Amino acid sequence: MPTIIVLFNDLQRLVGAQLPRNIDDLNEVFFFVKGEVESIDGDELSIEIKDGNRPDLWTVEGLARELRGALGIENGLKEYAVENYSGVEILVDSRLKDIRPYIACSIITNVQLNSESVRELMHLQDKLDLTYGRKRTRTSIGLYNYDLITPPIRYSVAKPLEISFVPLDGVKELSLKEIINTHPKGLEYGHILREKKHWPILLDAKNKILSFPPIINSNDLGRITEGVKDIFVEVTGMGYQTVLNTLMIVTLSLADRGEKILSTKIHYPYDDIINDETPKLKTNNMLLNVSYVNQILGLNLNIQSIIDLLKKSRYDAYQTDRDTITLTIPCYRIDVMHPIDLVEDIAIKYGYNNIEPQWPQLNTFGSLSNLNVESNLARDIMVGLGFQEVLTFSMSNKSNLFKKMNLEERNVVEISNPMTLNYNCLRDWLIPSLMEFLSKNSSVEYPQRIFELDKCYFIDKNKSTGVRERTTLACLCIHSKANFSEMKTILEAFFLNMGKMCKLKEDIFDCFINGRAGAILVDNVNVGFIGEIHPKVLEAWKLENPVIGFEIDLDKIFGK
Amino acid sequence: MAELHQLEKSLLLALKDGKKIRLSKLLKKTKLPYASVARASVWLSSKGYAKIEDIKRSFIQLDSEGKKTRKKGLPERILVEAVLENGGCTLIDTVSTLTKLRKDEINVALGWGRRKGWLTFSRKKGKMFIIVKEKPEKGIDEQLIEQLFKGPITLDSLTSKQLLSFNVLVKRPKLISQNEEVDRFITLTKVGYTIAKQVKEVGDEISQLTPELIKSGKWRDIQFRKYDIKAPVAKIWAGKKQPYLRFLDDIKQKLVSLGFKEMVGSIVEFMFFNCDALYMPQDHPAREIHDIYYIKSPSYGDLSDYTALINNVKATHENGWETNSKGWRYPFSLEATKRLILRSQGTALSARMLVDSKLEIPGKYFSIARCYRPDVIDRTHLTEFNHVEGIVLGADLTFKDLLGILKMFAIETAGADKVRFTPDYFPFTEPSVELSAYTVDSGWLEFGGAGMFRPEVTLPLGIKVPVIAWGLGIDRIFMMKTGISDIRDIFSHDLNWLRSQKVI
């Protein structure tokens, strides 16, 4: 969830009311915008907005807009509309189709910017690029001094060495390639373009560079300072809808500080998209039934109080029949897909803590899964036999599972994107994890007796997921006189308590000493193995005492 | 009568005639080893039952030269007897040959022989002769030495003549030595005397009760040796469950008692159940490689059993289908639904339960699901962890019930005194809420999240009743209870820590 930084005084000015200074009281206010203050540093508030689908709240202007409604300062819809077409055309190069196909632009006039709001504007741009724009892969924003631009604007492409310009806050002209390879922003976002032959470039009628999307603006045109009045906004990206949404949010934020919104015309050369005019600030209508609201919330609100709560949420709402409310939904509420979204707004404005919790009277019977019941039996027996239960990671690596156990590698379920080589596959047996546990406790008092009961994972083409899980029990003993008969005693005690008879059959395992290991048979089914760990394996785990153990597939015991 | 040790009893019995007894005699009488008698006598003395007297005595005994005189006597006697055998006169130069005495012994023999008047010297023709007239009688000194051959004698037992003789002998080199020795005597005090009369004869005390003693009934005649119950003993470690798993067992029991059925399922999951069915758009950031582990091989599975459901979900994402929603409005990839991953959230199990033929309505379900997310493991992050999640289904469920369930969890599993709800966001629920629980010990703690499944989740899966979905952050409760601050300790590799944890 995004954390945004806003300036307290600016927020207070935009809300138009005194806000409390201490965190607890502020959180009472930010309850309405799913916000929680993380820290206050002088005038700077750091707020976590716990809604991943409301980018409009990730701006100080959007927060203020919502809070004015919630605090009863201003009710109902705030109208935003395009004043007129600016006459600015944007011509899109067809070669962008496979690079970064979409662009949308707007112009906001007479924006009142002081040093504080410039800072907030930069923060907003960064935050939207990072979160909604998925680190600029999905969308990225550019802001420019409109007075310096000569339309029409071309959204075109260039080869890496074809064009040079001075990047924002720079002094020296750099080629696109140099920017990608040396500039901090190039290093951060260069991966988005690196594989492409051509790179996007935005320039005006005089061939002056606006920016090199999505990497960086030019220092000439793409520089917003206090004096700038009219701002040209551009958003490029991979999906048209997200590009339009991003443009809208930036446009509205600037409009809250400016005078007029002017539109631009985009000329696309693609087959599937016609020319378009942006920004799009169209409101939507939705119907909401009073009975639906009360049914979801378990309340008995009348139609008027619902309308009031909706207006506090900056919707326009009026009654259209006995049970129906018709709403106008502001353009920035891209999260509203279903009437249920309106119900949450009503509940938030009503106050979650004003709703009386009730324990539902449902006639249900609780139960543990069979798996759990059976596993618990096995765990209880092992505990009774004096073993300490341990919990280790189910992710492992082939070196632990096989190499250190003196075994040939087997096929295991591997991860495509492991974080480290230590955890890059799922374990198919438990004893290596227990060996690792013992090796980390070699200085702890002996004897040590440990067990673990967990799943093991095997590739199995007959399963829909291609993976079979087995509930497995393993235990190990280590002390200076540990020997095979001790473990056999424990094994027989275990099975006696499970109500089963077990037999051993000689077998060779490279991890065990030859002649001191065997397969465990229950009802003539091979359910596991027992043995004394080979000294070679002990050496690999840096253990200096004999270790004995067994491992059992419990699913086979329980007949699955 | 105060408790008496068996050793004390033995001593009291040996002393009960009231006489003063030397410690060495007591050893014989009690047939006990020296250390036991010495200890017990000190105990008795400290209790005021006996008096210990230490008496210092001087002993005389033969020294190295003295012991040599046993066969032949003192050098002067050897000399005079040799001279007598030689006819009572001999040249002084032949003494060495006659007596086989060392030169220093000869000097001693000549000196003492003359002093005792056993011999005289005579000079003839410039040569010196020794003359012995008769065999001298044994002197007191010789008798004393003979007596000493039998063993040391105390100094004060000597007669005055013997004492004079001793004083002379002791000056001769290495003949006789004098030593001091402390002799311990024990007598009963008056109290001790009374106590001793009450002490019964003691049989043998035993330390181990044996089957033989029990069967034969002999245990009636014997005394059990008292143990020092404060003495240290060897440590053993109880077999026990891993504390975190035990804690999860408790949580499970509580949920079962609240009417919840447990759901279980594979950790290798389809993207469909982990995300698509939960109305998470296919470009949702939580689906990216830094938030979900993808299986390398096999990378795609077979979802053909769910074709109809998948088509509903696809339509819902693209245009809302029959849910009255606008949908996410993007082209939905069927291929992406089959991608195999490690479950990243327990909600995947809830999604599976909704399409399970065993689903009951009304119904309450929970799971404690191992989940996985790519993360660098440190004191606040694990790459695998457990989600406690579940669902509640019922025709008339409302948001009030959701809050009621959360409140019950807070009271039952966290022992909360107060709860607080704040708005939250999950892609699959609306309305969504975060639960904070207050306890006196730890103040406010964010403890869980919940919401009502969106119609875009339930309707495509064929569920027509409200579904409450909830999740609890129980790891923090466990960490609070056990006082651990490092989340890695949940999977602790520290056996000492596991052994020392109290069972909670």
Describe the overall structure.
The complex is a heterodimer of chains A (560) and B (504). Chain A has 560 residues and is α+β, with helices and mostly antiparallel strands. Chain A is built from 16 helices and 28 strands. Chain A folds into 4 domains: 3-70, Phenylalanyl-tRNA Synthetase, Chain B, domain 1, CATH 3.30.56.10; 84-278, Phenylalanyl-trna Synthetase, Chain B, domain 3 (Phenylalanyl-tRNA Synthetase, Chain B, domain 3), CATH 3.50.40.10; 284-353, 2-Layer Sandwich (Phenylalanyl-tRNA Synthetase, Chain B, domain 1); 370-557, Bira Bifunctional Protein, Domain 2 (BirA Bifunctional Protein, domain 2), CATH 3.30.930.10. In chain A, the strands form 6 sheets. In chain A, strands 4, 5, 6, 7, 10, 11, 12, 13, 14 and 15 form a 10-stranded mixed sheet that branches. Chain A is elongated and about 90 Å long. Chain B is an alpha+beta fold and 504 residues long. Chain B folds into 2 domains: 62-172, Arc Repressor Mutant, subunit A (Orthogonal Bundle), CATH 1.10.10; 244-500, 2-Layer Sandwich (BirA Bifunctional Protein, domain 2). In chain B, 36% of the residues lie in helices and 22% in strands. Chain B is built from 20 helices and 19 strands. Chain B has helices at residues 6-14, 23-30, 34-46, 64-72, 75-85, 95-99, 103-115, 140-149, 160-169, 190-198, 211-216, 243-257, 271-274, 307-319, 334-337, 347-354, 399-414, 455-458, 474-482, 495-500, and strands at residues 21-22, 50-62, 89-91, 120-124, 127-131, 153-154, 176-188, 205-206, 223-224, 261-262, 268-270, 295-297, 340-342, 363-372, 384-393, 418-423, 429-439, 443-453, 467-472. Chain B is rod-shaped, with a radius of gyration of 52 Å. The two termini of chain B are 47 Å apart. At the A-B interface, helix 8, helix 10, helix 11, strand 19 and strand 21 of A face helix 12, strand 10, strand 11, strand 12 and strand 14 of B.
